[in-house]
Amino acid sequence: MKPLLIFIVFCFYCALQTARAELVITNANIYQHPSANTLVVEDKRIVFIGDKTEATTYLDDNTEVIDLEGAFLLPGFIDNHNHVFEAMSEIGGDCELSPEGNLKDQIPFLNRCRYQANDSQWLIGYGFTLENILSADNYYSPIAVLDKLFPTKPVILMEQTSHAMWVNSVALKRANIHPASEHPQGGWLLRETHTNQLNGILLDNAGDIMMEQAWNNSANKFERSYQGLQSGLAEASAHGITTIGDGRLYWRRGWYEVWKAAEKNNELTVRVSLRPWIYPSIAMEKQLPVLKSLFSNDHSKRLLANQVKLYSDGIITNGTAKMLTPYLDTYIPNAPLGLNYIEPDKMKDWLIALDKIGFSAHIHAIGDGAVNESLNAVEMVRKAGSRKPFTLTHVEAVDQQDIARFKALNVSADFQVGSEYIAQGDHSWAEWLIGKQRAHNLLNIQKIYKTGANITLSSDWNVHDINPLVGIANSLKMTKTGLPDVHAAIDAYTINAAKSLGLDKVTGSIELGKYADFVVLNKDITKLKPNAITNTQVLMTILQGEVTFEQEVE
After folding, report:
1. What is the distance between the alpha carbons of residues 112 and 189, in angstroms, rounded to a whole number?
2. Cα Dmax for the chain
3. pLDDT along the chain (554 residues), means of 10
């Protein structure tokens, strides 16, 4: 038997030596591989990194060869928090408002929407800014403006961050909300100060609940959602993104079925880790069976669902981010510390229960109170033995005593910096709510980075720019509060994000055996200043050896 064994081993070795590749990428400037210029891809994975003279044995008549002519090749960008399903959906885009406008300024936009609206459906829109709508300069209340223009049609308009909704009386009646209604968990019904009547503004989960009713009553919901998803995925590929951590999956709105259809039709041009939404107002025992049915953790597929999206709190501009010390001013004086979507004790129970059915969590935590409470919950599940990846996203305010806990608990911190005001360190918008000192200390990435914790960058698209190069550049423009160098910023959009998603064994870096997920740029961004990084062009995006985007030659 021994000679036969030697023959088998020898023949297997010969087969490896004569293997033919499906794709060879050559004449590339390969990130972190200065002595290599060629990659070979077989069965979607990287099987060779080296000089092109050594790659010829992989070629045959069926091998696709891509000559990059010296272009810069990076691991594909991983956007750890992206609302790709919602961002380009026609549902929600029936009525676009002005982000700068007060109530009076919105009337021309609303009139245009009124003439275009279908009388039999909800009117769903977006784009206003809460502070302008609730400004003391407004003569009328928000609900009065909508009621005058839409006396018989239900209207719901989403604020830019999605954390507030502006509705009319017809919508409130459809949702069975009246002046005596209680605030839902994680939400708030705003009222007029002197009359205690509802003013048409629903904060956080109060708005989510009504938006779900409107969404589920939209015409051609599946088709419009599918088309919007395809547009969103194409936009992601055009910006070099090969993997997305889903911002949230509202599974009671039919979103999961749309995703599965795209997977079945082989139209997923981006790998996506879906994150089913934890509904604050629905009992855990009713949600867990559904979540268990959605779970999937096959890393060879482009659609996974092994993390949930769980909100700890709201946002600072609403006064709903959970703080350790009270707001100086707020729309909800009866909740001076802000709100919890999931109460701290229940969050611990949730994480332990989710861990048992395979899920980790991507936790929305903006206020320092929410960050503290979320870390406490993760600490409990760690003590129970969980080693799954947990992430806190947004992380705008962090108490000094909690900074080192990210590293200690192996919790990733995910930041969004894709807007210019963040790059400039301008947090003056928060001063009237939390004071100058606390506002000045917002979004300090570097403090957590210096502890050795895993730091990721993401877009939260379409709240911020989807372009990872903008996020990378802005994290460097932030100087003392940002990331120290371009390599740390690239890591935050590649391998660190892969770790947050639990995918670092298969993607996030250019290594033998990992999937061939790449982005090709026209310039080497490691040699550029931040402003030039922003202007760098994506020439090509490759996912598992498949070209998903290629810049058109003019």
Report:
1. 28
2. 95
3. 35 46 96 97 97 93 95 98 93 86 94 79 92 88 96 94 96 95 97 91 97 92 95 98 98 97 98 98 98 97 98 97 98 97 97 98 98 98 97 98 98 96 92 96 97 98 95 96 98 98 98 98 98 97 98 78
Q: Positive or negative CA dihedral for 169, 174, 179, 181? A: negative
Give the Cα separation of 202 and 206 in Å (integer). 5
111 vs 401: CA distance, rounded Å: 51
Ordered domains of the chain (ranges, CATH): 77-84+220-543 (3.20.20.140), 92-216 (3.10.310.70)
CA distance linking residue 92 with residue 444, whole number of Å:
33
Alpha-carbon distance values, 139 to 130, 135, 198, 387 (Å): 16, 9, 16, 55
| Separation CA 509–CA 32 (nearest Å) | 9
Pairing assessment for the beta strands 198-204 and 164-167 based on DSSP bridges: antiparallel
Give how far Cα 518 sits from Cα of 278, 395, 532, Å.
33, 29, 21
Q: For residue 376, which of 416, 345, 412, 403 has the smallest C-alpha distance?
A: 345
The whole-number pLDDT of residue 117 equals: 73
Side chain identity at residue 421, one-letter code: Y
Task: Could you list the beta-strand ranges (E) of 398-478.
Answer: 411-416, 455-458
SS (H, E, C) 369-397: HHHHHHHHHHHHHHHCCCCCCEEEEECCC
DSSP 108: H
Q: How far apart are CA 541 and CA 477, in angstroms?
A: 26
DSSP state of 277: B
SS3 of the chain: helix, strand, coil, percent, to 5: 35, 20, 40
The predicted pLDDT at position 193 comes to 84
Cβ neighbour number for residue 401 with a 10 Å cutoff: 9
Residues 6+ apart with CB under 8 A from 410: 382, 387, 389, 390, 454
Q: Tell me how far CA of residue 547 lies from CA of 84, 201, 239, 385, 551, in angstroms.
A: 20, 45, 13, 41, 11
User: What stretch of H or E contains 531?
Assistant: helix 530-534
Instruction: Write down the pLDDT at residue 484.
Output: 97
- Here the tokens at position 289 are 């069976």
